[in-house]
From TrEMBL:
Its EC number is 2.3.1.-. GO terms for cellular component: mitochondrion; nucleus. Keywords: Metal-binding, Mitochondrion, NAD, Transferase, Zinc. It catalyses: N(6)-succinyl-L-lysyl-[protein] + NAD(+) + H2O = 2''-O-succinyl-ADP-D-ribose + nicotinamide + L-lysyl-[protein]; N(6)-glutaryl-L-lysyl-[protein] + NAD(+) + H2O = 2''-O-glutaryl-ADP-D-ribose + nicotinamide + L-lysyl-[protein]; N(6)-malonyl-L-lysyl-[protein] + NAD(+) + H2O = 2''-O-malonyl-ADP-D-ribose + nicotinamide + L-lysyl-[protein]. In contrast to class I sirtuins, class III sirtuins have only weak deacetylase activity. Difference in substrate specificity is probably due to a larger hydrophobic pocket with 2 residues (Tyr-69 and Arg-72) that bind to malonylated and succinylated substrates and define the specificity. Zn(2+) binds at C150, C153, C201, C204. The active site is at H142 (proton acceptor). This is NAD-dependent protein deacylase. It is found in: Mitochondrion. Binds 1 zinc ion per subunit. Substrate binds at Y69, R72. NAD(+) binds at residues 25-44, 111-114, 239-241, 265-267, 283.
Length: 292
């Protein structure tokens, strides 16, 4: 049976739901100007992030990997949450959620590392006269690009400064030339920053790495995430190509457990024919329209 596009039927299903999860990907932040990994952003096409988002790449060429993350840190810091981030933040507050799903608990799981969901939560809380802590916790399962981990002492910190992490990276601010994609960047054009001039740990002077989960590394909060996925009877899939595991497996797990799946994506993706609901279009429009 092909997925329903009826907002009325979706809202009815929400009313019956007990455990709702949302699993988001790069499409959630696309409207905020953060390039996605495929499609126009061209991360995968023009500049294979797979080849940079690995511990091996960092080991082999920390200067190149740091310039990739410097660019993305700058992008994240200069971007703002969009209406889809706000909608997800709204239903993270139980009393707002109750209006659309009176019997449900909600858990948000994001693959994104840009920190925009945390910013949206703060903004929604401030507008509603609430504390962010009144919202249910959400999981940034691939870490945060503004976090830093020391490869020597393991110290984890967060750096929200707009300023580049070190003078050597500041000099590469222009990387890459095209503001919307990573296209055109190749090893010749990239500066060769000596190890000692890359971001270093304040405590021990060790080399810092971005606080994200690379391919081949274990995602964060797996125990909590596996628990909520196993309980979920409604899974909202927002702006993800569902190509990276284990996040890509959550919707089918919920469906196998008899739950419902609602996909919010710009285009059709693998597996959305099994979805119960499919809302094609920009999630910054389709998600708020469907929820409220
Ligand atoms: C793990 C952080 C074991 C870094 C990311 C071989 C070797 C090693 C591993 C593997 C292997 N084969 C398979 C694996 C597993 C691997 C994997 O899945 N590989 C894939 C490529 C096959 N996974 C891992 O390694 C993971 N770890 O498996 O450990 C384990 C497992 C379970 C339990 C314990 C241990 C770790 C993966 C994490 C990698 N890190 N990010 C960084 O960001 O630099 S992944 C990164 O890419 C993102 O976080 C995201 O997850 C992924 C990109 O996917 P999307 O977010 O979906 O983005 P994409 O551009 O693809 O799609 C955007 C979608 O939005 C599109 O559909 C588009 O149409 C839509 N869209 C666009 N605009 C809008 C929109 N939709 C709505 N509105 C719009 N406006
Ligand atoms: Zn250290």
């Amino acid at each position: 049976m092909s997925p329903s596009t009826s907002v009325t039927a979706f809202r009815e299903a929400l009313k019956q739901s007990k455990n709702i999860i949302a699993v988001a990907g790069a499409g959630l932040s696309a409207a905020s100007g953060i390039p996605t990994f495929r499609g126009a952003g061209g991360y995968w096409k023009k500049y294979n992030a797979m080849s940079l988002a690995t511990p091996e790449a960092f080991e082999e060429n920390p200067s190149l990997v740091w310039q990739f993350y410097h660019y993305r840190r700058m992008k994240a810091l200069s971007s703002r949450p969009n209406a889809a981030h706000v909608a997800i933040s709204m239903i993270s507050f139980p009393d707002f959620l109750r209006e659309i799903a009176p019997e449900a608990k909600f858990t948000f799981i994001t693959q994104n590392v840009d920190g925009l969901s945390a910013r949206a939560l703060k903004e929604v809380a401030a507008k509603a006269g609430k504390e962010p802590s009144q919202a249910v916790p959400f999981y940034e399962m691939h870490g945060r690009i503004l976090d830093l981990i020391c490869t020597s002492c393991g110290r984890r910190s967060t750096n929200q400064d707009e300023a580049p992490l070190c003078p050597a990276l500041a000099a590469t601010g222009a990387l890459p030339t095209d503001p919307n994609t990573l296209s055109g960047v190749d090893t010749e054009e990239v500066a060769d920053i000596p190890l000692e001039e890359l971001p270093r740990c304040e405590d021990c002077g060790g080399l810092l790495r971005p606080g994200v989960v690379w391919f081949g590394e274990t995602p964060l909060h797996m125990e909590q995430i596996d628990g909520v996925v196993a309980q979920a009877d409604m899974c909202l899939v927002v702006g993800t190509s569902s190509t990276v595991y284990p996040a890509a497996s959550y919707a089918s797990e919920v469906a196998e457990n008899g739950g419902k799946v609602a996909v919010f994506n710009l285009e059709r993706t693998e597996g959305d024919s099994d979805a119960d609901f499919l809302f094609l279009g920009p999630c910054e429009q389709t998600l708020p329209e469907a929820l409220f």
